[in-house]
Amino acid sequence: MPVNEGQFFIGYNGMDAPFSNLYPIGFDAPVLTAEGHPVQHFNSVEQYFQYNKAVQAGDDQTAFAILQTTDGQELRNL
What we know:
The chain is of the alpha+beta class. The protein has 3 helices and 2 strands.
């Protein structure tokens, strides 16, 4: 009997996979800024990760661009 027979697998790669960082799910989270910890809305976990990486690197221009897009691959390319 094949190993996978009768088993159900959930993928986690892509915007349609609920365990993917790219899965579109809106949430609000506090972010680090010079002004303190305001709350920012994010469209996906990937957007949150990429935004915080840009902020930590001091790249405000890219951080702003990240907030303007919801496409997961585009987020990774910024």
